[in-house]
């Protein structure tokens, strides 16, 4: 998880969210309402069919397209996606993406301006508030942005592009004179 | 550069999209009954208007959905965005 920002403040803190189970959830044809009902029953989450994060606990659903979500589970075991498929049987297709995506958490006062320099969307809190989700591109790399706090973002990129994304992040940070603090899993 | 208001994602830069050409092109059929003229019209002939054009766009680097756009080919102004399978009246967006 993300360590505390250095005493100097500011800057950009980056950590990998390596403890996540990740799965793509796609509602079966005409089953979006049935899926929402199932998710409400099983997870107590009001699933929203839009570019918004649903859920506040360990399991969350980020809207990535009509009838589709990227779902996350903190501290998931290796069989989590299979159990999701069982839970949502008949109303959704579930694909394990736990090793398909790399998720970085960007925090600090420079997180928003940094991402804003790469993403062609308005990240001002009025247009992209906490809980907002965007599927977009940064430096030609497909990226899913989630605002998890006022100055905290999760960025999911396909794992094979993570090196390229990191290169953009480090280069852009250097160009902007932003100190980059990299944290390991255990802070 | 166009700013396209995706029905799911909101306004996004043109680079995230792919244009799929003119909308509402109907495939003639059944195949055996279609004349060469109908078939050529389906394959090759497009309206190419100076003014309002209906076209299909795919939000390729975003939510992945197809939708229809009414765009003025002179000003590039987008006047309407509507779902696949829907139609709108001529000039409805302007
Ligand atoms: Zn979209």
Give a written overview of the molecule.
The complex is a heterodimer of chains A (187) and B (94). With 187 residues, chain A is α+β, with helices and mostly antiparallel strands. Chain A folds into two domains: 8-17 and 100-176, 2-Layer Sandwich (Gyrase A, domain 2); 20-96, Alpha-Beta Plaits (2-Layer Sandwich), CATH 3.30.70. Chain A contains four helices and eleven strands, in the order E-E-H-E-E-E-H-E-E-H-E-E-E-H-E. Chain A starts with 11 loop residues before the first strand and ends with a strand. Mean pLDDT of chain A is 92; it is low at 1-8. Chain B has a four-stranded antiparallel sheet with strand order 3-4-5-6, with no helix packed on it. The mean pLDDT of chain B is 94. Chain B is globular, with a radius of gyration of 15 Å. In chain B, 19% of the residues are buried. With 94 residues, chain B is mainly beta. In chain B, strand 1 (3-6) and strand 2 (10-13) form a beta hairpin. Chain B has one helix at residues 36-44; strands spanning 3-6, 10-13, 18-22, 52-58, 66-72, 78-82. Chain B has one domain (3-26, 40-83): Folate-binding fold, CATH 3.30.2270. The A-B interface holds A 50-51, 64-66, 68, 120-121, 134-137, 142 and B 8-13, 15-16, 61-65. Residues 6, 8-9, 59, 62-63 of chain B line the site of zinc ion. Zinc ion binds next to loops of chain B.
Short description:
The complex is a heterodimer of chains A (187) and B (94). Chain A has 187 residues and is of the alpha+beta class. Chain A is 21% helix and 36% strand.
Radius of gyration of chain A: 17 Å
Portion in beta strands of chain B = 25-35%
Q: Between the first and last Cα atoms of chain B, what is the distance in angstroms?
A: 20 Å
CATH class of the largest domain in chain A: Alpha Beta
Question: What descriptors fit this protein?
Answer:
heterodimer; A: 187 residues; alpha+beta; Gyrase A, domain 2; 2 domains; six-stranded mixed β-sheet; five-stranded antiparallel β-sheet; elongated; disordered N terminus; B: 94 residues; mainly beta; Folate-binding fold; four-stranded antiparallel β-sheet; two-stranded antiparallel sheet
